[in-house]
Amino acid sequence: EDEEDEEEGSDSSSPPVSYQMKPPPEGCCTTDGFCQAGKDLRLVSISNEQIEVPSGFLLVGAKSPNLPDHLLVCAVDKRFLPDDNGRNALLGFSGNCVGCGKKGFCYFTEFSNHINLKLTTQPKKQKHLKYYLVRNAQGSLTKGSVICWKG
């Protein structure tokens, strides 16, 4: 028998379980598009807000499977993002919540839980970070170039 293909506690007839580190603490906001502190992270809602971005961090847009028409705004340490050729990104993650200001997320899984980004898979999960965000001539935050993830 091929036991390696079986995942703990699941059978082939059950739907895939979302990959989550743990359920959010009691009293946390679990609404798609909002962080656990209840702050709106959708680009359409905060595009005209002044967002404090620490030195070495960039604003990027994350694509939520549950909100296909929205990007969630995230502050990510640029060392963990690929260059224009999809290379030279450090392994790991460092990010901050632009909604409530919580800093120092060292794991993308922890960060995605905080921003209620419901992931269905563990591998390559940072590929949910889809776009660089830039300010246009009017000063609004808009979708910029695609983040080039390779491999």
TrEMBL record:
Domain of life: Eukaryota
Acidic residues composition-biased segments: 1-10
Domain GREB1 N-terminal: 2-151
InterPro entries, A to Z: GREB1, GREB1_N
Region (Disordered): 1-23
Protein name per its UniProtKB record: GREB1 protein
